[in-house]
Design brief:
five-stranded mixed β-barrel; OB fold (Dihydrolipoamide Acetyltransferase, E2P); single chain; alpha+beta; globular
Length: 97
Amino acid sequence: MKKPLLIAALAALFSLPLQAADSAPLSQGEIRKVDVAAQKITLRHGPIASIGMPPMTMVFEVEKPELLEGLSAGEKVQFQAQQQGNRYIVTELQVVE
């Protein structure tokens, strides 16, 4: 009886950071470079509150290669990023008209 309760409690605990990241506001940025082969994007961005990052230009990995489809340098975007160890990964990306 205790083991299922412990598993449920651990599952709830580990899902909290993911829920917090999903509810964070999207960050603003401008595409500097798209590297489809490496599945990376270079963004000049404002602050990213969800991971405590100040404004800068940096290279991000993308969670899904299809996030890069049709993108080009100079486009303004809104995006969500997560930190996984020493990796920064864009999990959501949309062009701003």
